[in-house]
Amino acid sequence: MNAHRQVLIAGATGLVGRELLQGLLADSTVAQVHALGRKAPPASHPKLKFHRVDFAALPMLPAMNECYIALGTTIKVAGSQQAFRAVDFDAVVNVAGAARAAGAKKLGVVSAMGADAKSSVFYSRVKGEMEEALESIGFDGLVIARPSILTGDRAALGQPVRGGEELGLKVTNWLGAIIPANYKSIQASSVARALLASVATSSGVRVMLSGELRKY
Predict the structure, then answer these.
(1) CATH number, domain at 46?
(2) Domain presence at residue 198
(3) pLDDT tens string 128-159
(4) What mean pLDDT comes out for the span 193-210?
(5) What is the three-class DSSP state of 172?
(6) CA nearest 198: which of 97, 63, 89, 108?
(7) Domain encompassing residue 121
(8) Domain-located, residue 157
(9) Quick one: what percent of the chain has pLDDT higher than 90?
């Protein structure tokens, strides 16, 4: 197959983003991958072009076909609810808007289980508001991944291990088959594979929970 897809990714140094980047670089239909971030991903590849950016003031982006966003933090790491929202809402929506302005018609984004704009839980409410904002931008295809607790090697990425993720993994291991599929912890690589398999051919809005994500 001829390489023709121009792809944007934001969050390529994170748990899911790293897997997305590797998959895109290995895809023979992808001509170039533009990675946005504050620090360059460790990968080096002829297809990869890194753009160091301030997510609050993005430059005009090169023409592209699709976009993947795997930006996210925690309130503990961010330091405040305001700082958390600046990443998980503002930066995500800014990237999506800039990608659409650059011609992207397809978008895949990593959200979270329980995302709901009407939630009384701040974290879930921000994720839900982010999803609603992305839907309003006007992509031909939007795939929203709502994984449960993510598993993967954060230490290898220089990221702090999240206590909630460790606890969730232990609970999953203890209770095993009695936990519903959508609530079981999930490998970051499964989330990435699901998005890579779905975004390019997506139409309308598709929400994928962990039970479905795990099939990839």
Answers:
(1) 3.40.50.720
(2) yes
(3) 999 999 999 999 999 999 999 888 654 555 55
(4) 97
(5) helix
(6) 108
(7) 5-210
(8) yes
(9) 77
